[in-house]
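In keeping with the milestone schedule agreed at the kick-off meeting, the structural modelling team has produced records for the first pair of proteins. Each record is given below as a sequence line and a structure-token line. The laboratory manager (R.T.) confirmed that both were archived under the project's standard naming scheme.
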Amino acid sequence: MINIEKREFNIGKHKFTNPLMLAPMEGVTDLPFRIMCKGMGADLVFTEFIASDALIRDSMKSKQKMEIVDAERPVAVQIFGQHKDAMIHSAKMIEDSGAEIVDINYGCWVKKVVNNNSGAAYLKDPERMADMTHAVASAVSIPVTIKTRLGWNHDTIMIEKVAKMQEEAGAKQFSLHCRTRDMGMGGKADWSWINVVKPNISIPLILNGDVKTPQDVFRAFTETNADGVMIGRGAVGYPFLFKRAKALMETGEDPGEPSVEEMFEACIKHLDLNIAYKGESRGFIEFRKHYSGYLRGLFGASATRQKLVVAETYDEVRQILDEYFEYLKIEDRLVPFEHKDAAKVTCRRT
């Protein structure tokens, strides 16, 4: 087993060693999900991205995205926008809220964002990007970090220059999603760029893109010079990814899929957190996107998910889950899981 080299760094007052980070994902990385991932081993969690213009207008939805609790610290609150005054004002609001880090989104690829000269649109003008980072970093005392992509498209990649300019502008961490803007979420993330960028900066460089399994995490640390790994879609409905990856890194062995009982306990805990934070109606409706992850690979999961997504009350959801769990125990269903692109493994007995 190849040992992972220790990569230690500080962001502000927080020290990290080979950290695993939860990537900011719109509609996913809300407070309950961040708490779940933190409890499973995530070293640093990021909020959903927040529009700076909406935040300074006192938008309730935007302010709620910024709410944090001690159980998830340290937390990075991510913002995006095209107006310098709004970005500065938002960063100050984040600092006043008690968050440890302000993160700037320079990587969102969706048309609504880039057409507003935000997100990945900054990749077309590295000087403008550096100017924005410098303005925000100069306005607050907490660290400012950034997340971006390789470039607008493959013909305009100049990520080494962008990274160097960002460090000079005051960024304390550089998170790189190893796709271009025109790729969206398609194609394969090209991790080889990590080793191209690394010699150009002294701030931490974080790898993001196609980290779906514990083995992906291990490869990211052994095959690239990344200082940390950021996990996005691989953790949706599956916060166990952090726990498994940590175990693999520390012991050289992947403990494998959680037991059915562990999956159900985590699912219910996450659902309860969602309801406690958002209220029963909104809480269990917005939780529906997580059922696929928590029930993935279990016998009869598809039919159970169909019931869950039309359930109208918390009690009905609990009844469906409890009855399904009892069914699995009685039938002793040990069926193969398939975690994204990973090989099939067998679920442990409950």
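The second protein of the pair:
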Amino acid sequence: MPPIHLDLHHTEDSRDLIHQAVAAISSGKIVAVPTETVYGLAVSGLIPEAVDRLLQIKQRPRGNPLPFAVQSFDAALDYVPDMSLLAQRLARRCWPGPVTLVLDANHRDSVINRLHPGVREATIPQGTVGLRVPANEKTLQIMQLCAGPILLTSANLSGQIEATKATEVEQIFGNLIDVIVNDGPCRIGQPSTVVRVEGNQSSILREGVVDQATLDSMSHFLGLVVCTGNTCRSPMGEALLKKQLAAKIGCQPNELEKHRINILSAGISALPGAPAAPQANEVMREFGCIIEDHQSQPVTDRLAHYADIILCMTDRHRQAIVTQWPSLVNRCFTIRSDGCDISDPIGAPIAVYRQCATQIDQEMAAWVSRLDLSEFRESK
């Protein structure tokens, strides 16, 4: 019989259709779902018969692994608990979105180890696992309501053109699938980029929406230094951190980007475009740093989530960030190791700025000594 169509654009309450899709997946059905790239075929990873059927209708060769769809970066850690720093960086910055990460899947605590042997054979035959968080709200809602892992592969015969519309899915598979969730044409209409990450090295296995240049920029380490207005303490902290990182790696501060390291500063109450305070400029020249071109900026959602580490001048700054973005709690710290504040020198004499800069410099030295920079020393 032909597949059931669940049209999200012609319903008064999409929640009912979403629950129907969840019920279908949970009962072992093959369900076509939309993503931002192409339509995908979803099955439950808890039902090996559904996985076998999916392989058959796709005409997918054994040994060509099926990827998992996950709800978030945190959920991906259940599959790869020992995810490398580079893989974590790419996952945070590319998801939800059109990037599939292929990672080593040999950790004893991985949820994959609890799946049926047939499912493991279909998903990790080469000891690696493909993971992706699709950027489609309705499909994410379906995933969140499903119990257990979801396998999600493009809606096409193996090696053929992918479907980007619900009608194309039915033309390809007809009554071989059970349900089609129709959310209109896919927003991007091109396959995801498949990226293999081994330790701190990455390579593109399949060209897709995200090109190599974008992937390279997503791979950079980002340190963010935060104060209130981003005109005194944090610009000095940014400059001093750059200087110390460059010394540790063995390059000049202006060469850090070539080594895939970016250091920025921002303020929790900053207005964009303000210069650094004149006293901060003067003191930084004494430290061998130039910040005359600095322009203030606020802490944004993008900056906060992209940052590998956020160093705050006060605990109030840290609390403000963690309150707004609770997921950053393990990446956001006060600069002082004792958790105390570095006082704002604004409006004070130059000697106070000098004292503040000296204190920041000492604390930055401690942070740099703790950072693992081995992956960046090897960059060219």
